[in-house]
Design a protein that fits this description.
143 residues; alpha+beta
Length: 143
């Protein structure tokens, strides 16, 4: 196993990271480093940094939240968030899905289940990774 994460369950969101976590995706990015709201950063050399306090929903869909799925879901969710925010190109979706598969295997998930997870994100994950237009910011005033 490459590294462990420390996290806790939340009431209004599923999980929260309790210590900063860094994962080397081994991707080389020609673009400048991607940053997302101060919670995640991806360097040009492929180091993904996820800050303490980052919240994510764990494994999606009908998946069971097991320990051998948590680290992969954290990294995968952070990468998809960077794609949704237009900070990471959509062409990195398949490499993110492969990375999820590799991390799940590294963390002890069975090959059969990891294959199922990979195929599920390939079929159903596209919408979750699609870049979204930023809503127009409306300034409100009270009294």
């Amino acid at each position: 196993m490459a590294g462990s994460i420390k996290y806790r369950k939340l009431e209004n969101y599923k999980y929260q990271l309790m210590e900063k976590y860094v994962h080397d995706t081994r991707w080389s990015l020609p673009e400048k480093a991607a940053m997302s709201g101060g919670w995640t950063a991806l360097s040009k050399t492929g180091k993904l940094t996820i800050k303490k306090g980052y919240a994510w929903d764990g494994p999606s869909g009908p998946a069971i939240d097991t320990k051998n799925f948590m680290r992969g879901s954290l990294i995968h969710d952070a990468l998809y968030q960077l794609m949704r925010e237009g900070l990471l190109p959509g062409r990195k979706r398949k490499p993110a899905d492969v990375l999820l598969w590799l991390i799940c295997l590294d963390d002890g998930m069975s090959r059969t289940r990891a294959d199922y997870v990979f195929h599920a994100v390939r079929v159903f994950g596209g919408r979750a990774a699609r870049a979204r237009k930023k809503p127009e910011q409306v300034i409100l005033e009270a009294p």
